Amino acid sequence: MLRLRDTAWYAIIDKDWPAIRSACELFLAPSNFKENGQQHLRLSALTIPLLRDLR
Question: Quick check: 26 and 41 in contact, CB under 8 A?
Fold first, then answer.
């Protein structure tokens, strides 16, 4: 049986981790979620500016 799977690999190097970690913590904070569980801010909204600065 043939199985197809899409895989995406991501990497974060040591010097970039503190900024990415802070964004992840902000995203996961209870204050970022509405009563229905939907987030106020998307993780991408928090990380895209960081990723642009890391280039």
Answer: yes
User: CB 38: neighbour CB atoms within 10 A?
Assistant: 8
Higher-scoring residue by pLDDT: 18, 2: 18
What is the token pair recorded at 10? Answer: 């991501």
Task: Please tell me the distance from the alpha carbon of residue 19 to that of residue 6, in angstroms, as a whole number.
Answer: 28
- 3 state DSSP class of 39: strand
CA atoms within 13 A on the CB side of 42: 4
- For 12-25, the pLDDT digits (tens) are 889 989 999 999 99
Question: What global pTM score does this model have?
Answer: 0.70
